[in-house]
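Hi C.,

You asked whether I'd gotten around to modeling the 230-residue construct. I have! Everything is below, sequence then structure, no commentary in between.
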Amino acid sequence: MAKLTRKRKEAEAKLEEGKLYPVAEAMALVKEVNCTKFDASVDIHVHLGVDPKKADQAIRGTVTLPNGTGKTKKVLVLCTPDKEQEAKDAGADYVGLAEYIEKIQKGWTDVDVIIASPSVMAQVGKIGRVLGPRGLMPNPKSGTVTPNVGAAVQDVKGGKVAFRVDKFGIIHSPVGRVSFTAEKLTENVVELVSILNKMKPSSSKGTYLKSVSVASTMSPGIYVDPKSLN
């Protein structure tokens, strides 16, 4: 078992084992127990009462966090020449098609999000084996395959994040940085959970929000009372 650092022990001592914290209190605590010297990411983990193996329960979608994520994402837009200026004006970091497909085939994936116009998806499919495992493959459900590439770039730059349930039924998503106020973190968490609640499949039975926890990078997790998120 790995040995806990002094800071980690001090952080865990501030948490009550087994307690479910109201969301506002949890977000204040996640700042207080942060163990890092840098502006760590704050992430949420939501265990849903779904069976991801069933198509109608494989939850995936997007949410625009009201206060953003605190991270500037690098965006590549794959499109035809007539869409390039629209993408550049919206703030895309990289714009093009053939040259970037070739770079990706050679192993380049130094981007956070890839947006593609529908007309080029046949060509983008050639690099699906590279992009898929890295979570970079454009998808209509996440809004990254669209004719409105400019609006999609602005959404991503403005705090839009994609999420999908993993094989254990858990959603993992960033909700901000430790430097955010507890109020801004709370607003982001509430917005994400609100979207998840709206996406509850009719075939999902029993408890939908099984558990909700938040944690900053390298710091202990804090369990949130789901009732405080309604």
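If it helps when you're writing up: The chain has two domains: 16-69+160-229, 75-157.

Thanks,
B.
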